[in-house]
Amino acid sequence: MSLLQEIRTRDRVFDFMTPRASRVDVRHGPILYLEDVTVSFDGFKAIDKLNLTIDDGELRCIIGPNGAGKTTMMDIITGKTRPDAGSVWFGSRHNLLQMTEPEIASLGVGRKFQKPTVFEALSVFENLELAMAADKRIFPTLTARLTGEIQDRIEEVLETIGLTGLRFQPAGILSHGQKQWLEIGMLLMQRPRLLLVDEPVAGMTEQEMERTAELLTSLAGKQSVVVVEHDMGFVRSIARQVTVLHQGSVLAEGSMDQVSNDPKVVEVYLGADDEEIA
Amino acid sequence: MSLHSTSGRFWLARPFHERATQIFLGVLLAALVIVTVLHVALPRGHALHVNAYTVNLFGKYLSYALLAVAVDLVWGYLGILSLGHGAFFAIGGYAMGMYLMRQIGERGTYGHPVLPDFMVFLNWESLPWYWHGFDMAWFAFAMVLLAPGLLALVFGFLAFRSRVTGVYLSIITQALTFALMLAFFRNEMGFGGNNGLTDFREILGFNLRSSDTRLGLFIASGVALALGYILCRAIVTSKLGRVCVATRDAEARTRFIGYRVERFQLFVFVVSAMLAGVAGALYVPQVGIINPSEFSPLFSIEIVLWVALGGRATLYGAVIGAILVNYAKTVFTGVMPDAWLFALGGLFVLVTVLLPRGVAGLLPGFTRRADHQPKEASA
């Protein structure tokens, strides 16, 4: 019924006729739009009427205590978990709730998991090569040649993640922080529009954290980045916009200073000292 | 320019630009030429003359070496420890054996124009359907590739689709070869039962007992090994090879990046099974018999030992391992037959403890992944 109506609507260009490059429609601003999203697991509301808007090219930090629903939110965006109610849009054309995980991924939503997994026996360069958006069927992969264009793209990403000097080393010898960067690089090879980064600095040294902060800020603008993080110092160092989640919905939103002075936020983080937030 | 200077080339041409492959092919070619010259040019009785028996023995080692390369392709690069590759080897061997049986014609003991001796002995009236076509060389040789390939395709499809990997897959491959052994032991199967297929006369019109034919088979085995080696190298140096290594080390992650892992596994498994089949087909005319003992689980485990001894994930290590172990076996079983299994076990323990990378690890300039990593990274 609705399909019939859709076909009969002549006042718009059908999706299949628009070129691939402009698939994601961000003319109206936001690249990601969540409205009234609710998920419950066995009656427990992990996400409760969550509203969130991420602008194209924005770097957004999401903080919140354990169980606030951060990971569940990521799962919903990537299609791993289906919400009970609400809507999730990518740009103003793609309804993510009607798409499968691989479709969402190929649309340009990249997710970095907490624990870095890189291919240890392969070199840094080869890790990036495998992650690149390409024809991933058997025979194209068998006959694939490394063209200058691909090489340039890999070098460019190597530069971005700061591993140029290590490109021929096996990824297994990289430090924890370097593996995290390599994984971000592997996401970048797929030319994502939106990067979801889950606790990037857990277990990192001070210097590594600084480098990560630089890396993430440099990525914003070219693509939208959503960072979920516990470490307040780190969030303060990168975030322009911070969203605080609590019990599955947005508690506060704004700059780091606004948020950390918000009495509601202070209350939620009670038990943790004010210092941790400030 | 950099390590990826060969990655821009046509995939089948890449091995020829690798140092290790050049050396391997050079050594293999030299060995083939030297043995041939010493066999043909020197008079019998000369101190350096290589007799027909030895040529035949070397030919057998070369077909084993090809089998070991096939196993290393799936084990070393894809992480699939197949303990049933003897099955593909034996099926390739049976396909060749069926061709050789049909070539006997009326010269069999019973003189039946069509039926092989064992069928006459069992009072069979006509040829079973699956024996048809094996009188034609092209058909039989195609079956050498297709029969093991098809078995691997069906078996692999079911196993990889269900994401059976690791120890479980190893056990299932053992079960596969064991089941086939039991089946081939049965006379009703029409493959000669316990005795298998033997009493071969000629191949493509050449008398199998003549020393020239044996030399020809030796050279054919060497050429097949070279081609198989090049094919495997081309696979492992391609992007597909890197996907294999990625799958071996982090299967879920590879899937997450967008590769249909089970299809890659299936593809490489089938290629490997076909190579094993070719090895079997070259082996059978050189030993003159194929029987169900080639399906024995022990044999399949032995192949894995050759690879482990030679050095896994190098391909040339598999060749070295296969030849060394089988040479040692020939010597040992000649001197004291009862001690061979103890010697093999001892050898395995020694190599595992002292040479974790196998014999190939002893080679000069060896790095684990010499093919992928230059020492200095030029920009």
Tally of discrete structural domains of chain B: 1
- The low-pLDDT segments of chain B are 367-379
Q: What is the radius of gyration of chain B? A: 21 Å
Hey, roughly how much beta strand do the residues of chain A contain? 15-25%
What is the number of helices of chain A?
12
| Global morphology of chain A | globular
Helix content estimate of chain A: 25-40%
The proportion of residues in beta strands of chain B is: under 5%
Structural class of chain B: mainly alpha
The number of helical segments of chain B is 13
What can you tell me about this protein's structure?
- The complex is a heterodimer of chains A (278) and B (379).
- Chain A has 278 residues and is an alpha/beta fold.
- Helix content of chain A is 36%, strand content 23%.
- Chain A contains 12 helices and 10 strands.
- Chain A has a 6-stranded mixed sheet, with helices on both faces.
- The model of chain A is unreliable at 274-278 (pLDDT under 50).
- Chain B has 13 helices and 4 strands.
- In chain B, the strands form 2 sheets. In chain B, strands 1-4 form a two-stranded antiparallel ribbon. Chain B has a two-stranded antiparallel sheet with strand order 2-3.
- The N and C termini of chain B lie close together (7 Å).
- Chain B has one domain.
- Chain B is mainly alpha-helical and 379 residues long.
- The chains are: A alpha/beta (278), B mainly alpha (379).
- Chains A and B meet through helix 3, helix 4 and helix 5 of A and helix 8, helix 9 and helix 10 of B.
- Chain A: It comes from Vreelandella aquamarina.
- Chain A: This is Urea ABC transporter ATP-binding protein UrtD.
